[in-house]
Amino acid sequence: MPPATAKRPAITALVTGASSGIGAALAGLMAADGVDLVMTARHGPEMEAMAAQWRQRHGVAVTVIPLDLARPGAARELTAEIERRGLAIDYLVNNAGFGTWGHFSATPVIDSEELLRLNVEALTTLTGLLLPGIIERRGKIMNVASTAAFQPGPHMAVYYASKAYVLHFSEALAFELKGTGVTVTTFCPGATETGFQERARMQKAAMLHLVKMPGSEEVARAAWSAMRAGRGVVVPGLLNWLLSRGVRFAPRRMVSWMSAMVAGPSRN
Ligand SMILES: NC(=O)c1ccc[n+]([C@@H]2O[C@H](COP(=O)([O-])OP(=O)(O)OC[C@H]3O[C@@H](n4cnc5c(N)ncnc54)[C@H](OP(=O)(O)O)[C@@H]3O)[C@@H](O)[C@H]2O)c1
């Protein structure tokens, strides 16, 4: 048995979308628990400011790699840069993502392409390229999906479908990795107060006016606790959990109708 004073081996986590919202809060919780970090998103200065605080306060190593992950080839560039810096990733958090609000016919196709490259392609490429090392170190993966993953989403059709991909891909991967010691958590938050709503230009969506949204800290705490425990699919919040289960028992046409009521414009 190692002596009681033996230091735990360092763990390094890559967190995408770490400049704001759920990703930034999650990275902060990890740093407070002594996890070394690689933070990535487009806004470098915001991440550098957090990194400086956490290095000083928690004594962790934090590397900031600013990058637009929706650019073709960017996920490969990120893993090459991580390797060039001699870093080994134990924990991978695929959190970067955004949504677009409005009918598909009125949404520029270029926006949907960008969304799919970030929410789907970058997540898949990063998982694939980092997986051999994560298996070797018996690490952990957390993919951030959404309650949107459980049903079609008129008014946010491409976003909902992208999160259904994240859910199904991650569940299947978790199954395939059984026995390797690697856990895959699919974290499915409901509406959360972050920069997400402004970027999606969805301030008029009914869902934002139905219930008070939790903040990113509260949601990140649930995410970090689920990832540490190696849980599978996690839907934080009782109402979110009930809706994600209930949807299985309703006729599909009714599901689309209900979903449209929630994601569509508020009547007030
Ligand atoms: N907020 C919600 O209601 C909600 C609900 C369910 C699921 N989610 C999911 O939670 C995750 C985090 O979102 P959030 O709510 O925390 O929103 P957020 O505050 O807007 O954060 C999104 C993060 O992704 C990064 N990002 C966006 N585009 C990027 C790009 N092209 N390349 C690299 N990074 C990029 C952003 O950083 P930069 O702008 O610096 O690039 C930011 O750090 C997303 O996957 C989202 O789909 C959110």
The assembly state of the depicted protein chains is single chain
Percentage of residues in helical conformation: 40-55%
The helix tally amounts to 10
Rounded mean pLDDT is 95
Task: Decide which structural class fits the backbone.
Answer: alpha/beta
Task: Tell me the name of the CATH homologous superfamily.
Answer: NAD(P)-binding Rossmann-like Domain
State the major sheet. 7 strands, parallel
CATH architecture: 3-Layer(aba) Sandwich
Arrangement of strands in the largest sheet: 3-2-1-4-5-6-7
Structural account:
The chain has about 270 residues and is of the alpha/beta class. The protein contains ten helices and seven strands. Helix 3 packs parallel to helix 4 (about 110-135). The longest helix has 28 residues, at about 110-135. The radius of gyration is 19 Å and the shape is globular. The site of NADP nicotinamide-adenine-dinucleotide phosphate has 28 residues, from helix 1 and helix 6.
Which helices and strands occur, and which strands form pairs?
Layout lengths: L11 E5 L4 H12 L3 E6 L2 H15 L3 E5 L7 H11 L6 E4 L14 H28 L3 E5 L12 H20 L6 E5 L8 H4 L7 H4 L5 H13 L4 E2 L3 H9 L5 H12 L5
Parallel strand pairs: 1-2, 1-4, 2-3, 4-5, 5-6, 6-7
Helix pairs in contact: 1-2, 1-8, 3-4, 4-5
NADP nicotinamide-adenine-dinucleotide phosphate binds next to α1 and α6.
